[in-house]
Write a structure and sequence with these properties.
The chain is mainly beta and 149 residues long. It has one domain: Distorted Sandwich (Deoxyuridine 5'-Triphosphate Nucleotidohydrolase, Chain A), CATH 2.70.40. Helix content is 5%, strand content 34%. It is built from one helix and eleven strands; from the N terminus they run ββββββαβββββ. The protein starts with a strand and ends in a 27-residue tail after the last strand.
Length: 149
Amino acid sequence: MDLKIKAVSPKIGKEIPLPFYATPGSAAMDLHACLDEAVTIPAGGRRPIPTGIAIALPSADYVALVYARSGLAVKLGVAPANCVGVIDSDYRGEILVGLQNSGESDFTVRPGDRIAQLMITPVVRASLQMVDELDGTARGAGGFGSTGT
């Protein structure tokens, strides 16, 4: 699949890298902060961080998903504020990552820092069917903690 990427900042491909897969087995590409200067996100705060790019998915059969980088999220408490960002196939604006700092210390994002991951995945559009009853399962309606800890 080809993904069209447009630089919306002149820094892209020069000072700020294009998204890239860090390893041959990576499922998602790293996104970088496209900033003129460092931005500090206070503990408990959040800030939109520009990436300097826009994308064009080839069709409505695909979606781009913005996920946390596990090192930032687990070690420092810095992750996308909306958990997973959804980039619809018809969106053509700049990708912004709303980072939230749930850590105990302020966190500084510097120009070019890897801030999130971008995954491209197929979309399945469901046809809704109203029913009076759902098919039964062994679990049934058991929710939070119903399968143990």
